[in-house]
Specification:
Elements lengths: L1 H17 L9 H52 L8 E5 L14 E5 L12 E5 L9 E10 L2 E5 L7
Antiparallel strand pairs: 1-2, 3-4, 4-5
């Protein structure tokens, strides 16, 4: 008798799965299909997030290594009293002679030139003063004129009215 009940129950359950689902409900097949799609999305999302993590980590490592390299080069150059790194140096403006273009406290990046031919009237240059009040000081001024191998400079603050 019990085996007959099991057979009847199995027949009923197999007949129910063959019948279409009532309106507004999902059949077992639809649930399985939706579940599979969700699993596939989760798997592809995990793959994307792993790739993003790897790429992000790679770029972070490159940035950190580059910054550490430049920091080491700057420290070594500062310790050996060589201000230029790859032909460039940084200076801080300490006077108002170039205001309003360059203000006190501004940090500037200076490119080393190899020849006077690289300079022209109107360029702003940084140099070490040799005479008068500027002797031994680092000066940033604008070129007024070039006379042979001499350069005449001036702070622009005196020109602004």
């Amino acid at each position: 008798m019990e085996s007959e009940k099991k057979d009847v129950l199995q027949q009923n359950s197999s007949e129910e799965s063959k019948q279409p689902a009532a309106e507004g409900t999902f059949s077992d097949a639809a649930w399985k299909d939706a579940s599979e799609k969700k699993k596939n999305k989760v798997k592809s999302g995990k793959k994307r997030s792993k790739i993003k993590k790897i790429v992000g980590g790679f770029f972070t490592a490159i940035v950190v290594v580059t910054l550490v390299f430049f920091l080491v080069v700057l420290v070594i150059n500062k310790a050996t009293n060589k201000p230029y790194v790859f032909g460039y140096a940084t200076y801080t403006i300490v006077s108002g002679s170039m205001e309003p273009k360059l203000e006190i406290g501004d940090v500037i990046l200076v490119k080393k030139v190899n020849s006077l031919d690289d300079l022209k009237v109107g360029d702003i240059i940084t140099y070490h003063g040799r005479q008068g009040d500027l002797a031994g000081k680092t000066v940033t001024h604008q070129i007024l004129r070039i006379e042979g191998d001499k350069i005449v400079t001036r702070g622009i603050a005196k020109w602004v009215t």
